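On clarity, I found the account of how folds are encoded harder to follow than it need be. What matters is that the chain and its backbone geometry are given together, residue for residue. I therefore recommend that a typical entry be quoted early in the introduction. An entry of this sort, consisting of the sequence and the corresponding backbone structure tokens, reads as follows:
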Amino acid sequence: MTDPSEARLLKALSDVRIPDGKRDIVSAGRVESVSAKDGAAQLVLAADGDEPQAWEQVSEAARTALAGVEGVEKARVILTAHKAGPSVQETAKKPETKPEAPDGAKDVKRIIAVASGKGGVGKSTVTANLAVALSQLGLKVGLLDADIYGPSQPKLLGLEGRPDSDSDRKRITPMSAHGLKVLSIGSMVDAEQPMVWRGPMTSNAMLQMLNEGDWGALDVLLVDMPPGTGDTALGLAQTKRLNGAVIVSTPQDLALIDARRSIAMFDKVNVPVFGVIENMSQFICPHCGQASDIFGHGGARHEAEERGLPFLGEIPLTMRLRESGEEGAPLVATAPEDPASVVYFDVARTLVERLR
């Protein structure tokens, strides 16, 4: 059966009204994205946070409308925030506010953010390999890909297809890869579709994956954060479920300037930084084995020492590490003897000790 086009899906949604009843969700500009693949339709709907019950009804009406389109076997609606979220100052001023722990993650013992001040430092690769290393050390591990604008985990972990969902229970079943439970927005939308979302929407999408993910009992959930210090990081900190953060940086000053901002942001929202990782610390020649400091060397270690933070390790750049990311097979799973894998396992052991 052929999947319905976006035009047909939008036509079905044009009968669904926003809470005030004056316009439909399509003409009101509330449809952020809608698509169907392999019989599964998915709608991202921008809602007003001050009318949660009304928008839940709109969400259910939209799901019913999509389910009635020929070629759609099941439909799912993701609600995102239409209004701006709180500022850093507002978040820092209200540490006493403790929302209820989300149901889907109630049996997750520890949640750790893996963050960077800027893109391009290899944060997602570090997260994937660190998660697999923790799993191979005997922990039950999950990975939440919160990098909404640039989700990399499906590619890095070799994930294909979409996660199953139960709209009645409002649960999403994480996908499985290399011993991990994984959820990524990259597995839920068309790979060619740009994520043209406002900042608060990215935070809401991340929280929905956290809250509705059927994570089960996990020792640790790693969150691959988007670069920078925006709404997603603040939204996660506000849940009061975040136990700590790991900062990833390359050695050069340009990356370290932004890494300092990430450290300062976590400090403002009272989230401890477990340590700093220097990624791409050296390039190891595959022919002669010589190490070259192509991005400098030791900058992240120095920054950690200056700020009194633990330094977790220097991960070299090797040819096999680059190849493993393109193949969807994490290095620690396919080449544990690689110099980069050795460091990943050392960092994982250090984190286990820190968590205790």
About this structure: The radius of gyration is 21 Å. The CA atoms of residues 76 and 167 lie 6 Å apart. The chain has twelve helices and 14 strands.
